[in-house]
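Recap for those who missed Tuesday's class. We walked through two folding examples back to back. For each one, the amino acid string is listed first and its predicted structure tokens come directly after. Nothing is annotated here on purpose, so try labeling regions yourself before you check the end of the notes.
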Amino acid sequence: MSETGGKQRERHADGAGRQENGIKDGIDELINQERVVIFSKSTCPYCDDAKKVFDKLGQSYSTVELSDHPNGGEFQSALKEMTGAGTVPRVFVDGKCIGGGSDTVQLYQNGKLEEILRKGSVETIDTTSDSDRGSGEKFC
């Protein structure tokens, strides 16, 4: 990989101050422009866990800190509609949601996250985990 050690960039998705469709468009634009995007809250330990995984892998990522964003609540509602989950973090790789903090840690621990990053396709990997079935993801 050409990325250097887990560098984080804070981003504000376009669509702030627009209606929900504008917010969804902003989210879509961001997740399709950046390799890894983490929608996070600055006080959420599960968000920190997800970021630490990418730091360990040396994979750069962009974050949108919803707790600091003027339209954070609207972004979180749009993410729930888009992904089916209303909690943070919501982690996207190559435009696809891989889940939350527990999902990201589990994918890292079983080697699937590195495979996803290497292959460049989330769809070729089974990313289901226990938390997808409702038994483990904590709420932030």
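Example two. Treat it independently of the first, because the proteins are unrelated.
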Amino acid sequence: MASTLTTSIILLICLLHVRNTISTDSRVTN
């Protein structure tokens, strides 16, 4: 159970990081 929760948190952080990177890239492109 704990490992599943940790995995979900890691995935969430990764998704947020990717989203921030994408928005930063588009901001720079524009």
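Answers for example two:
The helical segments are 2-29.
Residues 11 and 27 are 24 Å apart (CA to CA).
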